[in-house]
Design a protein that fits this description.
6-stranded parallel β-sheet; alpha/beta; about 30% strand; homodimer; 18 strands; 7-stranded mixed β-sheet
Chain lengths: ~325, ~325
């Protein structure tokens, strides 16, 4: 089956890989649409020593299932969890497979990803897409879940002053999600085109320079850069909270004494729950149309990756099937 | 008046400094006993570019007051807040002068410290020491307040598994404080003599090496070392909490992606409230006698500082008056 392959040398190639083999309780999907994420770009550059088929943001249609009991799903349009737990540990029992120590991560860790014509996934990892939701919107379920995760982790008061650092794909989702709580959200970033989109989304732009006494109760670091954390904490008032969203290869250097003296709380935040993300998308509670930069057919994946890596690019989609 | 002076070149000297001048609402104290803290040792080495009289852990007797309304305090034995706020901002109004952006910090920032025969302090910063509490115990009020601050910041369940990294003065106070919540506390450190004291205090010692799947819900980093944070987060289970207590000059390097992927919460923690610290000491809820390593007269401050800096030294006291 045709797929995007990262050989581990920085290239992005399209080639034939072996057809996925269904395990027990799994479904075979025809992948329809995929979204390229910052992590995919990092994997292409060698993050985590990844080799193989990337892709963890997708929409597909169930083609077949290994268990007759799951036959009802055949033909359904679905998105999927990216963390596949062992289903046998305490984390999985709590519905937190995304922290299962033996998890595989779709297109990231020990599991072939979704940038392929066909994909096998456990039925337990699937979520049916509401009929009214277009593929082009549903493909945002995974990054929106990651944005919504912040609301599961951190209380956001309507009176809060919030700074979202990073005007990329994730930053603009996070800013919309936090705005929905009534908080006053500012966005900062380096790309005029993205900040313009932020403005059109009704978000305020953070003026520079940093004031001597920071006013933000909550700062979300979604710059994707290792230098973002130290900058983020300096925008945060004493006893405030910094949410860490960037995963960068290698160590991050920051002034930890500042965090101690200011008694900041730094919260690492990764993947979230898919169900509320689909609900939010179906209800139109966030706008994703302005975040779509381009769409490429699977055959042109190298161009798609190059486009997604350009400064100011937001979400670049990969079309696997019409 | 005779005082310890750090000239900023690494030396510790004892010399005459000008007598403190009382401002409005201030009290003049005869300092009785001081405690040397890790921060004092760092200041001696040049942290924060400090020059002057250090010392922020002390017990003294009120000699005189500038306002007749405060005359009742004359003769009282007191300890003092180390953060002196402007008394005019929102932080000070909330009783959080320790986060006042215009604060002075006793013996650390823009305010001469307590390692002197005489000390001037605002009456509002004083706390009367219960009569039953010996100087040698009361001098632990400030570091114990810093340990108790953790309980104000982080919920500690009786079922929690806790690791306190650092077998120094602060670590052994923190471990006792957290144990009082019923949590299972382990201590790790590099000094056999300190770990022996930890055992005598009823604390468990963390066996090495680190297990592949960390079990601690809460890890307190009190090593005083910049490498402590990365090590601390690796002892913490997913979604657990790391309390950061070390203030080191210069940047700290750590694998921030680990904190993001594990969704850890890192909490900076500094000074705490003095009132509960005095209550805990008076009630004997923590043992401080095993933490006293030595006592020196003011004149021998250079020896006292050298002793406090020795590996395995716990609290070294400076006697200013009998």
């Amino acid at each position: 089956v045709q797929a995007v392959v990262l050989p581990g040398d920085g290239r992005v190639v399209v080639s034939e890989v072996s057809d996925p083999v269904l395990g027990p309780g799994e479904a075979l999907l025809d992948v329809r649409l995929g979204g390229i994420c910052g992590t995919d770009l990092q994997l292409a550059r060698g993050y985590m020593g990844f080799r193989g088929v990337p892709g963890h943001e997708f929409v597909g249609t169930v083609r077949s299932v290994s268990s007759p009991a799951d036959r009802v799903l055949v033909g359904a349009r679905v998105v999927g969890e990216i963390n596949l737990g062992c289903q046998d540990c305490g984390w999985c029992a709590k519905g937190l497979s995304r922290h299962c120590p033996r998890r595989r991560v779709l297109g990231i860790l020990e599991r072939q990803g979704a940038f392929a014509r066909r994909l096998a996934l456990p039925v337990s990892a699937l979520h049916v897409v509401p009929g009214t939701l277009a593929d082009e919107d549903a493909v945002f379920a995974e990054p929106l879940a990651a944005a919504l995760e912040i609301l599961d982790q951190v209380p956001v008061e309507p009176s809060a002053s919030v700074l979202v650092m990073g005007d990329g794909r994730l930053g603009l989702l996070i800013a919309q999600v936090i705005s929905s709580r009534g908080a006053r959200v500012m966005v900062s970033g380096r790309h005029d085109s993205c900040l313009e989109i932020a403005s059109r989304l009704g978000l305020a732009i953070q003026p520079a320079p940093r004031p001597p006494e920071p006013v933000h109760d909550l700062v979300v670091e979604a710059t994707g850069s290792a230098s973002g954390l130290d900058e983020a904490q300096r925008w945060c008032r004493p006893r405030g909270t910094v949410v860490m969203k960037s995963t960068c290869a290698g160590p991050t250097s920051f002034d930890a004494s500042h965090a101690v003296v200011q008694e900041l709380t730094l919260v690492g935040s990764r993947c979230g729950r898919m169900e509320p993300a689909l609900e939010w998308l179906a209800a139109g509670r966030v706008q994703v149309a302005p975040l779509r930069t381009a769409e490429y057919p699977l055959e042109e994946a190298p161009d798609a990756f190059a486009h997604a890596a350009r400064p100011g690019a937001l979400k670049v989609l990969l079309r696997m099937a019409p």
